[in-house]
Structures are given as structure tokens and as C-alpha cells.
Write a structure and sequence with these properties.
single chain, 2 helices, about 45% helix
Length: about 80
């Protein structure tokens, strides 16, 4: 996604999260869905980006945030 602006990237992740939250499951009206997303923005090797995004996802789960996005340089 190197050609996507940072704000577009984060907006898209929030849109995905909101779509999941709005999803209704037939015959289970009390069921609500949610996701936690860790997003890495910037140039990075794919394996490194996945590890960093995974770390951010768990950070989001601990802090009860659905989206955690950081630039590649901001994550160890």
C-alpha cells in the first residue's frame, strides 16, 4: 500500500472495523462482532511489517481500542 496516504490508510482501517461492527448475523440478533486491527504504515519488509502489526493488534486488545496504527519507524 505504498501509494496510499497515511490518513487514507487509517480511515480505511476504521471503515473496515465499522463494517464488521454493523454486520448482522441471521438468527443471532444479540450477537455483535468486532475486530482489532494493528496497522503499520511505511516501507518495511513484509515479514517485519506483519510482526509489527501483530504487536500493535495485541496492544489494541489490551487497551480496548479497535484500531492501532503507527508508522514503521514508531514501532520496535
Amino acid at each position: 500500500f505504498q501509494d496510499i496516504h497515511y490518513n487514507t490508510f487509517t480511515t480505511r482501517l476504521y471503515q473496515i472495523s465499522e463494517c464488521v461492527k454493523q454486520t448482522k448475523v441471521d438468527d443471532y440478533e444479540d450477537l455483535s462482532l468486532s475486530i482489532t486491527v494493528g496497522g503499520i504504515y511505511g516501507n518495511s519488509k513484509v515479514d517485519d511489517a506483519i510482526k509489527k502489526a501483530d504487536k500493535l493488534m495485541y496492544e489494541g486488545k489490551k487497551s480496548k481500542r479497535s484500531i492501532v496504527v503507527k508508522k514503521t519507524s514508531e514501532v520496535d
